[in-house]
Amino acid sequence: MQSNSHFKISGWVLPCGNWINCNPWEHIKKAKEINYIIESKDKNQNLHLLWNHPDDELLRAELAKIGMIKVCYKQIDADSVTPSQLTKLQELFSLCSLDEDIEFIGRIKLKIQVRLFLKIKDVERLNRLY
Question: Residue 1: is its pLDDT beyond 80?
Fold first, then answer.
C-alpha cells in the first residue's frame, strides 16, 4: 500500500471493531445515530442523563466508558481498546505514512510512530499505558 502524508480520517470504532465514518465536527451527532449507542443509552443511566447535555465532552467521556473510540485525524481518544478495535485501528493507520506520529489522548496516553503502532499485538499492554 502507498503511504499518504495527507491522511485524514474521522469517526468512531465500536467495541466489536466496526468503523463508523463521520466529519470531524460531527462526532457526537453521528454517535447519537449508532444503534449500539442508542441501545446502551436505554441501559446506562449516566449515558441517558448526558444524552442532551450542552457539554459534548461529558457525553464523549461516557461513550469512552462503554468502549467507543473516537478517531479524529491522527488522534485516538480511547479509554481502552479491544483486540477487534486494535485490528481496525491498525488497518486504518496502515494507510498513513509510517513516519507519522499518532497520539492516544483518552485514558490511554501514548504518542507513537505509525510504524511502531502497527507492530503492537498485546492489547492489554496498550490498555495499561495511562
Answer: no
